[in-house]
Design a protein that fits this description.
- There is one protein chain.
- The chain is α+β, with helices and mostly antiparallel strands and 149 residues long.
- Among the domains are: 44 residues, no CATH class; 58 residues, no CATH class.
- The protein is built from four helices and five strands, in the order ββαβαβαβα.
- The strands form two sheets. Strands 2-1-3 form a three-stranded antiparallel β-sheet. Strands 4-5 form a two-stranded parallel sheet.
- A hairpin with a 4-residue loop joins β1 and β2.
- The longest helix is centred in the middle third of the chain and has 20 residues.
């Protein structure tokens, strides 16, 4: 794998991984490389710092988690996020693995419009996006309501 920093015509800089530099050239030539911020396909390699590996005889930096400097604020933030999650899930219907079919039916007016959430494979999600069906991942894990305690 190889990583490049790319810059679009709107001056957005983003990182992207390819199997090889040839893969990058091929995908760019076919118009498959686009800015994730604005969708611009006019992208070029940006100047980037070289990735230099540390010497083998050096100890790895200490990467242990550090305790929060403000545990009360962290507790309040986690409680607020849990409340938001609960409210979002209460206002939508869980459709499980039927998510792609349900979302498509709602989009095409075959079923009444309502907020739904469920599970979809990457291929199903890609297909929904290509069809113009509005979908977005939830920022938290969702259990089947039948599996909750």
């Amino acid at each position: 794998m190889i990583v490049f920093d790319l810059r679009c015509g709107q001056d957005h800089v983003f990182e992207i991984w390819f199997g090889s530099s040839g893969d990058y050239a091929d995908q760019k030539a076919r118009g498959l490389v686009a800015c994730p911020y604005c969708g611009d396909t006019d992208v070029d390699k940006a100047v980037m710092a070289p990735r230099v590996s540390a010497k083998g005889n050096r100890a790895a930096p200490d990467m242990r988690p550090v305790a929060s400097q403000n545990p009360e604020a962290m507790k309040d933030m986690m409680a607020a996020m849990a409340a938001l999650q609960k409210r979002m899930l209460a206002q939508s219907t869980y459709v499980g693995g039927r998510f792609a079919d349900e979302a498509r039916a709602i989009h095409h007016g075959e079923k009444d419009a309502r907020p739904i959430h469920g599970k979809a494979t990457a291929a199903e999600t890609r297909s929904l996006i290509e069809e113009g069906v509005p979908v977005a991942p939830l920022p938290f894990p969702v259990l089947d309501p039948r599996d909750e305690n």
